[in-house]
Amino acid sequence: MSSCKKSPEETAEVTSLDVKVLQVALTEVPTQFQFTGKVISDEKTLLSTKLLGTIEQIPDAGQKVRKGQLLVKVRNLELAAKLESAKASQKEAKAYLDNTQKNHERIQRLFEKGSATRKELDDIGTAYEMGKARLETVAQSIAELNEMMRYSRLMSPIDGFVSQKMSDVGDIASPGSPLLALESLEQLKVEINVPEFEIGKLYEKAPVVIKVAAMNGQLINGWVDKIVSSSEYSGSQYKVSIQFEEAVGLKPGMYAEITLLKGAEQKILIPENAIYRRGQLVGLYGVNHQNEAMLRWVRLGKTYSEGVEVLSGLNAGEQVIISSEGKLFDGAKVEVIN
């Protein structure tokens, strides 16, 4: 009994399926090249100190900062003690110089009256010059110590925010080790990496469209700002920076899709509902001369607003089935109703 039962395919050969078809034509679409990148700050810096000391004050990540604002305080007791000692030596040297100057003036008057010898005048003159040199040396030491103490109070060089915090209060700050990373919110750009075979498509001032998923797909007009001419230090990828018009809500770290529009070209586009998928294979149903559905495998390209690009397996002027009243299969009898 089972051998006499007709299969669905045999039944479908008797009954034709009503289908609608689309005659394929070339459609002019903009030539697009797409790249992915990330929004970064064009102005960013690392704060570090030249002192070895304990951190007394440091802001948290995400905190907004102003240019000139005190951000980090580092305590170095040894340096502070040296500075106080130098200031004390400065007072002593100044007192010595003042006293020596008075004696020099006094002996100068006595020498002019013949009451002091030349040796006494020369000796006090030498002492006076040594006093001036000593005071100058102490002043230079204080200046150097003050310069070092400047690194115990780190100010923000930009208006922006703390993008990364590497240390906490109580930690030991080491000379040259970064403590904070700062970024500006006012000067942003998109940086993309372009492979060698596509870098020739880009040029400075080339207009692009930027799409940021985190901003609900908002489109932003931009342009190519800089192209690094060497890929030696970037893994065979050329770094390209994109500038753009002001965009409210854009933040460093957001991923962006860059589209370069470069002329137009003719492409075969089909609607998404005409595509048949079986695993990794992609196909379309056409109609042969016997009014039968014919499955043909194709290779697809980019998706446009007008449809999906067919790269191979379909030519202009041919027909594809875009809808049917029943389930299609290869060899099914069909009747075109449009």
Which keywords apply here?
conserved putative lor/sdh protein from methanococcus maripaludis s2 fold, six-stranded antiparallel barrel, four-stranded antiparallel β-sheet, 23% helix, 338 residues, 4 domains, alpha+beta, OB fold (Dihydrolipoamide Acetyltransferase, E2P), 22 strands, Elongation Factor Tu (Ef-tu), domain 3
Topology, please?
Elements (H helix, E strand, L loop, with lengths): L7 H7 L2 E7 L2 E16 L2 E5 L4 E5 L6 E2 L4 E6 L1 H37 L4 H33 L2 E3 L4 E6 L6 E2 L4 E6 L4 E8 L11 E6 L5 E10 L9 E8 L10 E16 L4 E4 L2 E7 L5 E5 L1 E6 L2 E6 L6 E6 L9 E3 L2
Parallel strand pairs: 1-22
Antiparallel strand pairs: 1-21, 2-11, 2-15, 3-10, 4-6, 4-9, 5-8, 6-7, 8-10, 11-14, 12-13, 12-15, 13-14, 15-20, 16-17, 17-18, 19-20
Helix pairs in contact: 2-3
Structure description:
The protein is of the alpha+beta class. It folds into 4 domains: 8-24 and 271-336, conserved putative lor/sdh protein from methanococcus maripaludis s2 fold, CATH 2.40.420; 33-42 and 187-264, Beta Barrel (Elongation Factor Tu (Ef-tu), domain 3); 44-76 and 152-183, Beta Barrel (OB fold (Dihydrolipoamide Acetyltransferase, E2P)), CATH 2.40.50.100; 77-150, Helix Hairpins (Orthogonal Bundle). 23% of the residues lie in helices and 42% in strands. The protein contains 3 helices and 22 strands. The strands form 5 sheets. It has a 6-stranded antiparallel barrel with strand order 2-11-14-13-12-15. Strands 3-10-8-5 form a 4-stranded antiparallel β-sheet, with no helix packed on it. It has a 4-stranded antiparallel β-sheet with strand order 7-6-4-9, with no helix packed on it. Residues 9-13 have low confidence and may be disordered.
